[in-house]
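SEQUENCE-TO-STRUCTURE ENTRY
===========================
What this section holds: a protein sequence and its matching fold, both as plain text.
Question of interest: how does this chain fold, as expressed in backbone structure tokens?
***
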Amino acid sequence: MTPTATYRLQIQPDFPFSAAADAVPYLAELGVSHLHLSPVLEAVPGSTHGYDVVDPTRVREELGGEAGLRELSRTAREHGLGLILDIVPNHMAAVPRHNLALWEVLREGPLSPYARWFDIDWEAGGGKVLLPVLAGRIGDELGEMRVEGDVLHYGEQRFPLRESTAKLPLPELLDAQWYRLGWWRLARTELNYRRFFTISDLIGVRVEDPEVFDATHGKILELVRDGVVDGLRIDHPDGLADPESYLRQLDEATHGACWTVVEKILTGDERLPEGWPVAGTTGYDALRHVDGLFTDPAGAAELVGQYREFAGPAGDRGGYWEVTARRAAYKVVTHELAAETEALTRLAERICSADPALRDHAPWALRAAVRELLVRVPVYRPYRIGGEEALPVEAAAAAKGAFAVAEEAAAVDVVRDLALGRLGEAPDHAAFRARFAQTSSALRAKSVEDTAFYRYAPLISANEVGGDPGRPAVDPEDFHAYCARLARDWPATGTVLTTHDTKRSADVRARIAVLSECPDRWADFLRRITEEAARLDGGRAPDPHLAWVAWQTAVGFGIPNHDRLETALLKAVREAGLHTSWTEPDPAYERAVTAFVGAGPAGPPLYSAALFARELDPYVRANALGAALVQLTMPGVPDVYQGTERQYLALVDPDNRGPFRQGPPDEKTAVTQAALRLRRERQEVFGESGTYTPLTASGPAAGHCVAFCRTGEVVTAVTRLSLRLSQTGGWAGTELTLPEGRWADLLAPEREFGGGPVPVAELFADRPVALLSRATVREGSAASE
């Protein structure tokens, strides 16, 4: 069964299955059809997110165990709801004392039956697995280790000992193991297992092996077969060796009975591979299109100029997005992903040395070719779609520019051909193609989402997963074309506005996006607030880029909580890596950040910031309600993140990952409930056989009204760029032509409209959005005579 709408709940020890069951009556009343649960399999104790799975064969006891999950499913069914599970096929937690499969591999080595579970390059590690867990060099940490029985203790960590080695002197004991304990810094260059992005605590799983697939998916498939689960969200499919084969295997194992969506981040105009047996994506592409609809392109361009002048971003040629992103990619591929680059280089060397036609490519040239091509992959992963290659000729030509000699640049062609599978299907060739694609997705995520988004900040509402800060606006024609394509090709795809991974919630982004409509007012506010803060002890920002980001964040948040704002800004400066970082912190700089937050955005100037934010309230209202209604009624299956049915102000994780709390309803709740109930009641209108038709307004303010009709039965109309609208005379002389018939306003039941031209001012008399449903003609009414 395809959901009509899902509601994401962050299941965690502070919000277990029993708490979710208590919320079921409220969520059924709200109008969703399914609960969407974060990962529920056994994870590291205390984990608040569940993506660090340690045992895929069991439902997590801290959440209530399998009995609790099945009871939640029964409660949900009693209220007409189903369950969607978030599953993590790509990785597990690399925490041996909790991950028993990994424990056995470390104890028994490559001959362990569990060794095939994990993506370990034993040869590169000299027959050992590097475990980068030590606080310092091993010689300085020996005194912190002790042996008890057949277990090695290091702080709170535990490691198994190889048979008959427990009584050896400590140095000899360490040398005798199937693993090598190392300084945590060695992960950057010497790690010999595949990990999730750059997180060494998460080890890659080889689900491409049929036995590993069966072992790691048995419990999930049992829950599907038993009717406990109706659908699956697949986390990070780009990390898998062969995503399409995995999805086909999953589809066969579930007999096509699951609604399945993939967390595939599409870049620009990239399309989801047509051959994937899924309903679509988790919806970040929809987020970008909806957000872009409420962003003014002219004002966004003005903000870029202001940002360059105010922040003066160093080393990025005046603050251009493409340059920022490319520089971030070089940083990540040469530092954080150095081990992955080396693994690809070793593979390429081995392939070339075994092929007479490919010999004599120097290792340094192959390494450079790998690096230069990786940073130029224009999408997350180079799939071949519709005959077009996501590693285009232009990328190879640009990569060759890094070489001084043309003969040496030929290594680029070799690496490109290997990455695209042009040189055969031998095991090493297939391994290179898979690993190049896996590394590409990790590089894109870390360099764009986790670095460049924090370095480039003209309009931070555009810096969201799947977004394009260089082109933050989407015009209505492009939005309509996107929706028409979804209705035709992916009618059951997921759509989102806020998730557990968004850097700012939709309502925070809605307020920040208004700045694109009033760049002059923003510039004046920033000048005044900077002067006001500078008069206070500690109120001067340590650098202008941080000041720009902090004040946009404060405006977006309204009245920010000091601790929440400080946590988010410290994360921002560490991710940016310009003045401090997670691995190389600068305590003095971070103290200056903390002092600035306390004296500035969360200090006395907060009153001035709140006044400025309040001036934007009417336009924020239009953005927030408009984005919500568009997402809930456009093609696809909307996912409502916990709490976002009302105003929800949250920053980057962990701020947005707390337990679900039911709050008081507001205007957004009424809009959300009306749309969700309509979707549930009129499934034929919004379902896979439904249609999407743009409606075009006419008159001087036509560009400020975005409207569409679903299957001839429901009309959505929203206000776009309302602040600009107010500056140019409002709705005077502007009309929206409705399809023939009578139309009831579901947000104001006493109001009806006839078909044909309707003054937009009348349509939006009570609120900046309208949800119209074709009215049933009442017997004896004037319309029936």
